[in-house]
Amino acid sequence: MNPARRRAIFRRLAEANPNPTTELEFSTPFELLVAVMLSAHTTDKSVNAATRKLFPVANTPEAILALGVDGVRPYLKSVGLYNAKSKNLIEMCRILIERHGGQVPADRGSLEALPGVGRKTANVILNMVHGESTIAVDTHIFRVANRTGLAPGKTPRAVEEQLLATTPPEYRRNAHHWLLLHGRYVCTARTPACPRCIIRDLCEYPHKTPPQRLEKSDAPVARRGTGGVRTRTGTRSKRAVPTE
Ligand code: SF4
């Protein structure tokens, strides 16, 4: 894809949603770290259901560590893989206290050394907490980058590197939010909503969904400007964050 087209895609996504953010609910960097860590292989909705109960009771490494694995597990039952995540969460809190003074580390190495924290979670934290222009590639971003031609790659890491190398600097900080939201609510896995897509004339995907086919599908209807979505059965809230 040529640079002018790439820039035009990001310009359009930015105009439609100038301040993209995450669907995960949090009020401190530590809460965000916990929420992103819990979101691996599960939905943001189920994570929010868990943290809405957990955080009022314990929202610091010290308080969660004091709960212990058995104490934290009941709060995480709405979350996939909650047994393993309960153990990781307690161990993560222990390490944060012992090595980082209870703070969320600002370097990739320390983040990725935490139990349950991989490259994608580290990228989200570095971006949202520490202001770095990292791009966390999840399944949605991987799909959108490949379909559109923005950053074709066989692995998430390859796509991440391509996006970092080619995304215009002024769009790099928010790129992962825009692409994730676009993938979750418009360029969906089964039937991308091409007829309603705001970048369809710029997208290089050769198999775009024709209008007749979209009408018959259950694809979500994107709400331009919010990143939110209207489904045929109801309304979901707007924001999203990558899962590990
Ligand atoms: S035109 Fe279709 S394939 Fe291309 S980005 Fe939009 S929804 Fe995805």
Description:
- The chain is an all-alpha fold and 244 residues long.
- Residues 222-244 have low confidence and may be disordered.
- The radius of gyration is 19 Å and the shape is globular.
- Strand 2 and strand 3 form a beta hairpin.
- It has a 3-stranded antiparallel β-sheet with strand order 1-2-3, with no helix packed on it.
- It starts with a helix and ends in an 8-residue tail after the last strand.
- The chain folds into 2 domains: 29-128, Hypothetical protein, domain 2 (Endonuclease III, domain 1, Orthogonal Bundle), CATH 1.10.340.30; 136-236, Helix-hairpin-Helix base-excision DNA repair enzymes (C-terminal) (Endonuclease Iii, domain 2).
- It is built from 11 helices and 3 strands, in the order αααααααααααβββ.
- The chain has helices at residues 3-16, 29-38, 44-57, 61-72, 82-100, 108-112, 119-128, 139-148, 156-166, 169-185, 211-216; strands at 221-222, 229-230, 235-236.
- Iron/sulfur cluster (SF4) binds next to helix 8.
- The site of iron/sulfur cluster has 13 residues, from helix 8.
